[in-house]
Design brief:
The protein is α/β, with parallel strands linked by helices and about 210 residues long. The chain has 2 domains: about 50 residues, RecR Domain 1 (Helicase, Ruva Protein, domain 3, Orthogonal Bundle), CATH 1.10.8; about 150 residues, Dna Topoisomerase Vi A Subunit, Chain: A, domain 2 (3-Layer(aba) Sandwich), CATH 3.40.1360. It is about 40% helix and about 15% strand. α1 packs across α2.
Length: about 210
C-alpha cells in the first residue's frame, strides 16, 4: 500500500533516510518524526556533522584509513611496528581489530574486495598502492585479514600472487573466524586470537 504523507517536506526527508543501508520506510519515518521533536539547533548540528564529514574527511596517504589529517594517528604512531601490515577491507575492520588490543602493526585499507558480481575489480581497490608500499618500505610481513567469504578468498589469492615475487612473508588470520563470516561482526576475543595465531598463506592453499 502506497504511503501518503501530509507534507512533501516530510516525504522527501523520509525518502532520504530510507536510502541508508538497513533503513526501511517505517524506520525512516520514525527517525524523521524524532528529528522534528528535537530543537532546531540539535537538528542543525546533526545535519552539519554529516555535511562536514562528507566534505572534510581525509584518507590517510599511507594506509587509506579515514582520518582528519594527511596521515592517520596509527601510521604516525612511532611505537607501532611498521614492518607488520594488516590488510583489511575497510575502516570497520580497522576499528574491530584495534578493539582487540592484540595488534601493534600498521594497516592497509583496500576499500573493498574483488567482487565481479558487483562490478568491483582489482583496479578499483588499493592493491597497487600496497605493492608499492611493500616494495618501498621495510615491510617484513603482510597479514591478510579479509572476510572468509568467496570474495574475500579471491582477493586474498590475488594479493598473494601480486606479492609472491617480493621479499615479504604473507600470512592469513587463523580460521577462528567461521567461513562466511564478516570480520567486523567477530567478537574481540576470537578476532584477537585469529590475529595472534595467523598462519602462512601458502600453507593455507594446501588445505
Amino acid at each position: 500500500m502506497l504511503q501518503k504523507y501530509p507534507s512533501v517536506l516530510l516525504e522527501n526527508a523520509v525518502n532520504e533516510f530510507a536510502k541508508l543501508p538497513g533503513i526501511g520506510k517505517k524506520t525512516a519515518l520514525r527517525l524523521v518524526l524524532h528529528s522534528l521533536r528535537r530543537t532546531p539547533e540539535e537538528v542543525e548540528n546533526f545535519g552539519r556533522s554529516i555535511i562536514n564529514l562528507r566534505n572534510e574527511i581525509n584518507y590517510c596517504k599511507v594506509c587509506h584509513n579515514i582520518c582528519d589529517d594527511e596521515v592517520c594517528h596509527i601510521c604516525s604512531d612511532f611505537s607501532r611496528d611498521a614492518s607488520l601490515v594488516c590488510i583489511v577491507e575497510n575502516i570497520k575492520e580497522v576499528m574491530a581489530i584495534e578493539n582487540t588490543g592484540q595488534f601493534k602493526g600498521l594497516y592497509h585499507v583496500l576499500g573493498g574486495i574483488i567482487s565481479p558480481m558487483d562490478g568491483v575489480g582489482p583496479g578499483d581497490l588499493q592493491i597497487e598502492s600496497l605493492v608499492q608500499r611493500v616494495q618501498s618500505e621495510n615491510v617484513k610481513e603482510v597479514i591478510l585479514a579479509l572476510s572468509t567469504t568467496m570474495e574475500g578468498d579471491t582477493t586474498n589469492f590475488y594479493i598473494y600472487r601480486k606479492l609472491s615475487g617480493l621479499d615479504v612473508k604473507i600470512s592469513i588470520i587463523a580460521r577462528g573466524i567461521s567461513v562466511g563470516d564478516e570480520i567486523e561482526y567477530a567478537d574481540e576475543i576470537t578476532l584477537g586470537r585469529s590475529i595472534i595465531n595467523r598462519t602462512n598463506f601458502k600453507d593455507s592453499l594446501k588445505l
